[in-house]
Design goal:
- This protein is mainly beta and 275 residues long.
- The chain has one domain.
- It is built from 1 helix and 31 strands.
- It has a 17-stranded mixed sheet that branches. A 10-stranded mixed sheet has the order 2-5-8-11-14-17-20-23-26-27, with no helix packed on it. The protein has a two-stranded parallel ribbon with strand order 9-12.
- The chain is globular and about 45 Å long.
Length: 275
């Protein structure tokens, strides 16, 4: 009997006072790790409505309208991600400059998820931004190029339409995938050497050269259709040569992957390239 009581005392749990309640479902606005682009967080200057001067992740909470000859957002730091968050940067065709610009050499930038339209110059002018990414952007009706990207970069799932310059202008060692370039005055896509263009559509452009790549480049599973020029659609490598059945799979150092592309002239007949 006494042994039983001793065992019960030894096994009894000590009493603890309840601690403070722990909130597991916090309001996401209280733990947001990104910074809103606004006058308080990213104040502008004489040339730019907003300036991002520190690395980090930034996002929009509404549309931004261009004013008074200024650029929209100027990225002046490495390691910046700018999420347009589904909103638009809207320029003034007669006054505003570039929608998103990187005026000095930068690296590791990402601009994504929104629309850049109606700027007097380029929509996204990040030609100085190497090792960067542009994705899920719509760039249209800009006075210069729709999108620009520098070397060692990627552009994916973007639409460039109605731009006075090129739809997309880029440097060397660039991967472009899942993009549409339509009704641009310049080439739909114009890139440097050692690039890959895959699963893209270039259509209804006004330039003689619709899709331009330099040496050691690959164009795969693309459609180039209804563009200007004597053969409707052209690729360029050191010189301009038309897409046609006579173009070999490998020409010099430009490689076009097997059976990827076709050209569709404005006439009823279709001209499939043997590439």
């Amino acid at each position: 009997m006494f042994g039983w009581r001793r065992s019960a005392r030894l096994c009894a749990r000590p009493a603890y006072a309840p601690g403070p309640a722990v909130a597991f479902d916090e309001d996401p606005r209280q733990v947001e790790a990104r910074t809103i682009v606004n006058a308080a967080n990213t104040p502008g200057d004489a040339s730019n409505s907003f300036v991002i001067s520190q690395p980090g992740s930034y996002y929009l909470t509404g549309n931004i309208n261009g004013t008074g000859g200024k650029n929209g957002i100027s990225i002046q730091a490495d390691g910046v991600t700018l999420d347009l968050n589904g909103f638009a940067l809207i320029g003034e065709a007669t006054g505003s400059g570039i929608g998103v610009t990187a005026p000095a050499p930068q690296t590791s930038l990402c601009v994504r998820n929104g629309t850049v339209r109606g700027w007097r110059s380029h929509g996204v002018g990040t030609l100085n931004a190497s090792s960067s990414v542009l994705e899920r952007l719509r760039a249209f009706n800009n006075g210069g190029d729709g999108l620009q990207i520098s070397n060692e970069s990627a552009v994916r799932d973007c639409v460039m339409s109605g731009n006075i310059g090129l739809g997309l202008f880029g440097g060397d060692r660039v991967l472009v995938s899942g993009c549409v370039a339509d009704i641009n005055t310049g080439s739909g896509i114009g890139l440097g050497s050692d690039v890959v263009v895959v699963n893209c559509l270039v259509s209804r452009g006004f330039a003689t050269t619709a899709l331009l790549v330099a040496d050691r480049s690959t164009v795969s599973r693309c459609t180039v259709s209804r563009n200007a020029g004597t053969r409707e659609s052209r690729l360029a490598w050191d010189r301009t040569w038309p897409i046609a059945a006579s173009v070999p799979t490998t020409t010099g150092s430009l490689r076009v992957a097997a059976a990827p592309c076709e050209t569709v002239p404005s006439a009823a007949t279709r001209n499939s390239a043997s590439m």
